[in-house]
Fold these 2 entries.
Entry 1:
Amino acid sequence: MKKTLWKAVVLGCVLVPFILGGATAKTLKIGSMSPLTGPYASDGTDIRNGVLTAIEVFEKEGGIPGYDKIELFAQDTACDPKQAVASANKLINLEVVGVIGAYCSSSTIPASETLAEEDIPMLTPASTNEMVTDRGLPYMFRLCGRDDDQAPAAAKFMKESLNAKTIFIIDDKTTYSQGLADGVKKASEAIGIEVLGHDHVNQGDKDFSAVLTKAKSINADILYMSLQGYSPGALMALQAKRMGVPSQIVTQDAMFQPKFMEVAKEAAEGIYLTYGFTDTTTPEYKAFEEIYVPKYGAIAAYATYAYDAATVLLKAIKATGSTDPAKLKAEIMKMDFDGVAKRIKFKENGDSGSTYIAFIIKDGKFVPYWHPEKGLLQK
Amino acid sequence: MDYFLQQLINGITLGGLYALIALGYTMVYGVIQLINFAHGEFFAAGGYVGVILLSYFTGRGYLDTHPVLCLTAAFALTMAYCAFLAIGVEKVAYKPLRRESRLSVLLSALGMSIFLTNALMLTQGVYDKAYPSELFQGGFQFGSVTISYLRVMILSMTVVLLIALNILVFRTKIGIAMRATAQDKIMSSLVSISSNRIISLTFGIGAGLAAAAGIMVGLYYGSVRYDMGFLPGIKAFAAAVLGGIGNITGAMLGGLIIGMVEIFGAGYISGQYKDVFAFIILIAVLYFKPTGIMGENIDDTRV
């Protein structure tokens, strides 16, 4: 008898927080998906930090009416499609109202199909592959640009600004890097740059000496480096410099990460890359910088986009006072405001477009160099 | 021809690094018949201790004034640290299971590998750590073949370490004791060789070599990251099996072969298949000679 009583007391104690919790605190749950471990952990961590910053800003402004707090469930996808689907299922079970993510296109695509079964809105800050929005999912939004915008911009830049006649392309066989490499190949051929070769490396490689020796012997005007993440990119740039590969290196948005220069150091100097244009002089950007930098360090490629993605979602919830996906979508489609990364206005398919410009790495900084309409931005 | 020579040098460099890591696998297997899956993590830990020490030296300005001394100190301290780490890992994760089935030790090794990788990630962060790049700038130029000083340093260091290991195993008393333990633990303990000490020593030496490879990889490729141990670990394990696991000369040979095949596969066919070629060679060799190139360890070369 005593034992039973004891058990009942323990059980009661265990249950109290649940009962009380259910009655008083109401939490708005949102999810994020990005690689927090594995080779792309740094970009993935930036995405999570961007979302956290957005939540912090909203809570400072008084939160969202009807909710006591906003909670983020950050999932680790490890840039692995299987794990991405598992994360999506986990977020569905947690009953999140929306998801920011993922990073790798190869994760975003399968995860979005799982989330779509439950009509949970997904806003990707970083997946640039065309298929992300081209499948016609109703609640898929994209804050960054598309590869089929980036590839022609890169080709145009190489032709007009660098007078390139020949190009050698290297990718690492991810959905993103290979898609972009194929796009650059097609765009280059279309405007008369001769493609002298297209080789692949493996994810996780550290040694690129074989493929770079090949690049050196082919000696194209441009070495186009299409790799998933800054880390292999920095290693390749460093090795290319040490091996004396004479080609000019041009690369893409995944290298827009201050850590790239930290690793590649002087080998990074003079490398060009294409990246969505962000005006760093706007008050929105400055405000973001003030909160983000002291807490998480330098702003890298996708923190701003993740912040904007979370802002779009939270704004929509605040404006509609509901978490119904159809209402949220209607609200998101009406949006037209200056985000941190760019002006946010969605198209019918969920894309928000991006103007790709070329940057040059100079004195360890990304300096805007060329604009597709305005031409050279500086000498 | 120049192209071939350049690729040959690339292959030897990479192969030498694989060989250094493979030795740890093969030595441990020789003594306690365990595939130490945590071995790749000693390599990663070596890379990290190296970068911490060298950054410290650079910060104090010692690296500019005494480059050779700094490098020697970095190598010595790192190798010692990883040797002790490996001995500790053996004591914690493998020794209590020595009488259990092989499978439980193997699982313990896998667990240790995951634990060490994550410990490295949590303490050192997910970002790449860059090595000081001031060392060994420039290189020799023969026609269009470039050999950087850094590469010369790495190759000669590898050769020195391999020779030192051979002398240790085949010319010293400790080496005799190691080989005796590998052949028959009970018999060797009857002639008062402490098998516990020999096992610790074997783990220490193997991890020390892997740590040296870790610093060299950091110096050569410019940075280290917490998950760097996984892929080279797998490749080096393949190299050890290819050469005949348990056999020291086999591990060196296996490392060189895997490195060469990778580089030539990438250089002459396509980079995307380089791992495929390495493993095709492995499968082909094992198909015809299941014990690896240097055969099963029945003679006294086994450690």
Entry 2:
Amino acid sequence: MLKIIDSAVPVACWSCAVANNESVLFCPHCSKIQPPPGGDYFSVFGLTPRLDLDLSELEHEFHRLSRKLHPDRFARAGENEKQWSLADTALLNDAYRTLKDPIHRTEYLLKLHGAAIGEEHSGKDRKDPSRVPADLLEEVFELNMQLEEMRMARKTGEEDAALQGSLEQARSKFVGLLDDVDEDLRGQWKIWDAGDAGARATAQKTMVALLDRRRYLSNLVRDVTETLGA
Amino acid sequence: MAEGRVVGIDLGTTNSLVAYMQGDAPMVIPGVDGSNLVPSVVALDPIPVDGGRPTVTVGNSARKVLIETPERVIYSVKRLMGRGLEEVRKELHFFPFRLAEDVEEGEVPRVQLGELRFTPPEISAYVLRQLKRNAERFFGAPVTQAVITVPAYFNDAQRQATKDAGRMAGLEVLRLVNEPTAAALAYGLDRAKAGTIAVYDLGGGTFDISILKLRDGIFEVQSTNGDTHLGGDDIDNLLLSIALDEIHAEHGVDLRRHPGAVQALRKAAIDAKIKLSADESAQFDIELPNGDRYQREIPRGVFEQLIEPILERTAGPCKQALADAGITAEQIDEVVLVGGSTRIPAVRQLVDELFHLGARGKKPHTDLNPDEVVALGAAVQADILAGASKTTEQMLLLDVTPLSLGIEALGGVVARIIPRNSTIPASATEHFTTGVDGQTNVAIHVVQGERELAADCRSLARFDLKGIPPMSAGLPRIEVKFLIDADGILQVSAREQRSGKAAQIEVKPTYGLTDDQVESMILDSFDHAEEDFAARLLIEARNEAETILAAVERAPLNPAWQQLRGEEQAAIAAARDRLAQVKQGSDLNAIREATAALDQSTRRFAELMMEAAVTTAIRGKTMDAAGEELGDELTAPHPMAPAEFK
């Protein structure tokens, strides 16, 4: 997903041959579309990497660039321009999809800065006790028992209102914890965006931990929702 | 480069249409018979005894043959597009078509049509060619570029099959557009709106729901969902099987063994369904082969109860689409209804409940004809692509991929690389390596779908990364780029990064035709030369004239003729003489006008004959007897341009 190739190499425009110092979507001289530039998703929108983004500004820029880049605008263009329009628009869409989502954006930026973010694998790792956040060990243990009980009850067609109630309660508690994590993340964004290298390194560590916790919690909530809804 | 008009085509399960942008409004192009809808029905005419070229008929005239010779006719072929052998087998339980026997697993299934066999894209190509001809006839100029609509929930294979069909019909498919999105374009054209709209599209064979955000001419799809196996056909099949069972139980007649009678009964079921959208009750009244009558009253209440389970299946996709868009039903500003099945009051009721419309003082939009709105939208998109129009220059459609794209990872689980509802074009880059020293091939399995296990998803392609330089296990680093283009079709490219060598890769679709196969199926590649285009139009017009004249000549032999009033017979005779006269000349328009006039004057006669044909088939007469009685007229009074077949 990460493409940081040759972003500072001078490139000449294929159409007017004027050299550009950085890769761009359009030639600043003749406005012709260019092959997909290197650089990260932020640079597609002309942004320096940051976490606290104005989403309506991002959307506006997404629409503006889409109007110029989209393959619909090149349906009758030459083969090269067609291909570049396709590749550039895919890059634009990939970038927008990643940046508009707060969690994907955070993960992306941290990965750009070398952080190892745990990959999600279908939620099965929840069973691994070493991955359970320490403060939740007891509750998760309890919850897993209840989930198992609920599944058994479903199988035999029994209705257990008390169990249902307590699972719903657990779910709203974990949803609340998720909201707390998001709040904490937003706090760290501001620190990262404003901070120097040292502050950034600390914020990065905190965010990696928060993202782990978040992934764990949202898998948990999903499991409960699935079991309740089954 | 000759840049003719770009037309918009709705290639439907039941009916197909072609439209174009006339000035700043889209408009449907009528066929020879004046009708906007071309039934998606293809018939193979009897092979000439002299060994001449057999011809293929499309549209209304093909539909008329359906009752007489069901084994020579195919309809609803869209349900078979892009599907594998097993899926097609299942599908065919509901249809009278037979699968060609020599098809092997992994091949594109072929359907038996009379003596010949066709793949589903070939059948669709005949429908497309008819639409292309209708447009060419209308413009008096060749048409070579088109936008074709597909259900939003079509997967990669179904999209590819549709594109292949276009190519076989001699059309460059500039874009595949999702049907609900096209409908939104048609609705959004004349109003500079901002807001969130839902398009609920229940057609003949497919259901789609799409949620879009409109802003400054940008139509941005937020989410889409659906069921490629849900539509009016299901309602018809339900009514049909109930009637067949009742006839069997009450009268001891197993109509299932009479394909012609089943088709006649299906037509009765469809008529009843349509009637129930306006009336409180409909009737079956059919004479059976043993002389009994099957009479059955269907009150609307009973009908609604029967179809409730079918309609209820649209609720899940709607809720999922809302959830994926991250909004609630209350945040939908407007709902647009598309597809003939949305005429059913119970469907409107369900939509009202799903989106809390009545409660908010709103009504769904139905002001555009639900049968035509998709084609009109396709014409708008065609105009956007042609790029030379003030009306559409500010408009842009940003659509999404309906299904997640994934790769089969260790243990058969799916690693998702492009999530569903991603704006297309979209891409993802993945890295692969080897597991054994010196390994030079890596096999990759791409799937489409939302399930966790690859076996439960739709297998899209299996391919080998070949020519990897031999290295220690785990050392090669192969970068594979997956790109879903603006048509929703996957493209794959790969390179080995350590050696810098582009790996030679072969993308083999799990189902689908190869390029060479498509090439060999292109219909009449030679009759597109522009220089003889005018000549071809004239020949076609004369052929049309001759077909209808021959039919009218034989008309008095048909019992239905006696039911016409004297002045009706006189009007037909006058129109006949006029056509016979202008046919000799080379005034294309005069021939067409005279043909249309004769066609118009024989319309009631055609209807009378249709009724007689239905009754005959129901009575279970042998086909030969029915044929003798009816002569050839059954296909004749509303001839579409007869299509040759090579």
